[in-house]
Every structure is written in C-alpha cells, then in structure tokens.
Write a structure and sequence with these properties.
12% of the residues lie in helices and 33% in strands. With 190 residues, the protein is mainly β. A hairpin with a 6-residue loop joins strand 1 and strand 2.
Length: 190
C-alpha cells in the first residue's frame, strides 16, 4: 500500500493513495497526481514524475551515437547542430546515445570552456554508454550556409537541431557508428 508523504508521519491515519495520470504538453513525460483522502481533505496535490520504461521505438525509430560532451551540449540546448563528414538523407526524430568513449573528454571540455564559456561537467559527473535523450533533426546541410547562423557548424555537413529533450535517467545501451535503428524490444527510462 502506498501512502502520501504527510501520512507517513502518522501511522494511525494510513490510507491508500489515489492516482490520476496527467499528460504533459511534452509527450515524453507524464506526471502522477497523488493525494490521500485522510489527511488531504482539501485536495492538496503531491506531484511526482512517474516514468515507467517504454519501448524505444515509441519515441524514435533511429539512434545516433554522439561523444560527450557534445551529447550533453545538445540536450542542454547549447549546441544547435550535429556535424558529420558523411552524407545522410535522414531527418526527423532520433534518440541520442552518449558514447562510452571518453578518451579526449578532458581536452575537449577544457577547449569548449575557453571557446564558449560554458561550464561543462567533470568526466565522472556525465552520463556515458547509454541513451540520454531525443532530438529532432532538420534535413542535413551539405554546405557552409549554416556557418553564419551557428557557432557549432564545423562541416562539411550538419543537421540543424529543431528540438530536444533530455531523459532524467540514462538507459544503458551499446552504440554503433552512423545512424542505426532502435531495437523493438529496447526499453527507455524517461
């Protein structure tokens, strides 16, 4: 039996919690509203995130592996395009996999701190080796016309990022090169 936070202090008034699921504007998360009729007669609400694991393919059918700290920069809204040297006709929603390879993380993070002034987390504080979020990519640019609009464009090709959402918990997963399809049985924690 679940009880609300206020009832935990008084064991004599334990009542089951009623739950109501409310969908947010953002389709990647939902909230559960908790209340107890015993101590919460005025219907004070206790909001908590409730995110059961869902299928990866319910969010996006494709995954791209990105090295840290670049995946972190995308999901925090700092980096507005993803550079690649190879041509791709992909556009749309894609899961972001944070690469496990952190070989040059310290040098990259230090260079980015100097170049942009962004405070990047230390290597032991950042998620690696799993799916950390989702982003919507515009069609890939194949020329330098994006350079005046983005300080992150290094070319020769890049996907401008339309929108992004960082998951609260990393889902461990193996990464691959290029864009690859999500496994239908793979579960994601929001």
């Amino acid at each position: 039996m679940q009880i609300c936070d206020r009832c935990q202090e008084n064991a004599a008034t334990l009542r089951p919690i009623q739950q109501r699921h409310t969908k947010l504007e953002n389709s990647y998360a939902r909230l559960v509203e908790f209340w107890c009729d015993q101590c919460c007669a005025d219907r004070k609400r206790f909001w908590r995130f409730a995110a059961p694991p869902i299928r990866a393919t319910d969010i996006a059918a494709h995954i791209i592996s990105i090295r840290q700290p670049y995946a972190w920069l995308i999901l925090k809204g700092w980096k507005d395009c993803e550079n690649r040297t190879w041509v791709s006709h992909f556009s749309g929603r894609v899961l972001i996999h944070a690469s496990l390879n952190l070989d040059d993380y310290i040098e990259t993070a230090e260079g980015l701190r100097k170049y942009t002034g962004i405070s990047i987390p230390k290597m032991n504080e950042i998620d690696a080796g799993g799916i950390v979020g989702v982003a919507d990519f515009w069609p890939q640019f194949t020329h330098a016309s994006l350079r005046p609009y983005s300080q992150w464009f290094t070319g020769p090709r890049a996907w401008p990022i339309k929108s992004y959402f960082a998951f609260s918990k990393m889902t461990p997963a193996r990464g691959y090169q290029r864009i690859y399809k999500a496994k239908p049985d793979q579960r994601i924690f929001l």
